Amino acid sequence: MKNPKGQKLIDKIQRDLMRNGIIVNTVVEDLKELRPYAVEEEDPLLAKVIRLTYEHIDTYQTFDIPIPDDEPLDENEEAIEAPDSNPEESLDYLLSLMSDTSIKNNEIDLREYSRALQEYAEEN
Prior knowledge:
The protein is mainly α.
C-alpha cells in the first residue's frame, strides 16, 4: 500500500486490533474503507485479499485463517510450520503484509491467505 491514507488506516486497524481484539463491525468497516486504495493503486491481489478478509470476518465473526507456513527454500528442506496463531495474531500479520506488497515474500503470503480464505469459504 503506497497511499499514505491507506497506510494510516492499516496502522489504525492494527492498533485497534492489539487494544481491543477483533471488533467485527469496526474491522469490517475499516477494511471496506481500505479496499478502494488498493483498487486505486491497481493492485488486484491486495484488493481481493482485503475483500475476502472482511467478508470472512463479517460471516464468521472472527478470523479463522492461520498464518501461512514458511515454504521450503529447496526440495531438500521441509516446510517450517508456523506456530499456532490466534485470530488476532494472524490478522495482524496479514495487515503487515498489506503495508508493503512490493516485497516478494509478502506477495507470496498474500496469495496464500487468498487461497486459504477461499478454501475456508468453500468448506463452511
